[in-house]
Amino acid sequence: MMTFSKAGVAAALMAAFAYLPLHANAALFDDDEARKAILELRAKVDAMARDLNSRVDTKADKTSTLSLINQHDQTMQEIARLRGQIEVLGNDLANVQKRQKDFYTDIDARLRKLEPRQVTIDGQEAAVGVSEQSAYESAFGLFKSGDYKGAVTALDGFVKRYPESAYAANAQYWLGNAYYAQRDCKSAITAQQAVLKHYPDSPKAADAMLNIASCYTELKDKPNATKTLNALISRYPDSSAAQAAKERGGKK
Question: How buried is residue 223: exposed, middle or buried, by Cβ count under 10 Å (0-12/13-18/19+)?
Fold first, then answer.
């Protein structure tokens, strides 16, 4: 019957333990739960080794040696099982880390799409969000295509949703034009007056006043038409709209 010395058994045990995958350990340090599990498994293997060495020190007869050999075999099987668990944990964590990386990459890409972008509106630089730019261009596109009823709904919705947008003054102005294109002069006047009230410094303000004067002319309201033309010349004297107002009979 073959016997095993303490050194031989310990050497065999440590040789088997050496096969534990080092790459799993390196990959798992980023995950607390996986790292804890691996440390617990390795601690269990170390305890087995200490117990085995203790038995070699205290038992030397053949019966004890046979028992020790059986325990050694069981220990090797347990080590193989633990090694498999570590490999599974390593693979699972690698998959989780890949999914997390893909998730954050996707989130970053989505956030970049939502970041404000610089645009030029009536010669002025402004920062606008992607969604508001898309909404404005869609609404204005309806106006340009001649769908004035649809433009009214879209432009009015835009102003209500984005009242502080750099496009808001333009949306309000084109809303007035969409009403005028449908010969709804009263609604057109109300819409253009909103431009003057909420966006008096907009490049569209002078044009809005000129459109108001045109609407009053359409309604055969000459006094208000003339009053509006004169106010336009006084308020925005350097605008092209003021020059047009003078040509229509407005006074300096």
Answer: exposed
Tokens of 144: 């340009």
**Residue 180 to residues 47, 190, 203: CA-CA distances in angstroms?**
89, 11, 20
DSSP-assigned letter for residue 119: E
DSSP bridge pairs for 43: none
DSSP-assigned beta bridge partners for residue 128: 117
Q: What is the DSSP string of 187-220?
A: HHHHHHHHHHHH-TTSTTHHHHHHHHHHHHHHTT
**Residue 143, token pair as written in the block:** 């106006």
- Number of Cβ atoms within 10 Å of the Cβ of 182: 14
Please give the Cα distance from 67 to 59 (Å, whole number). Answer: 10
Is the pTM value of this prediction over 0.70?
A: no
Question: Which pLDDT tens digit goes with each residue over 179-199?
Answer: 999 999 999 999 999 999 999
Query: Exposed/middle/buried for 25, CB within 10 Å: 0-12, 13-18, 19+?
Result: middle
CA-CA distance, 241 to 177, in Å (whole number)?
15
Q: Which residues of the chain have pLDDT under 50?
A: 1-29
Question: How far is the C-alpha of 35 from the C-alpha of 250, rounded, in Å?
Answer: 83
Tens-place pLDDT, residues 79-112: 778 878 878 887 888 888 888 777 767 666 565 5
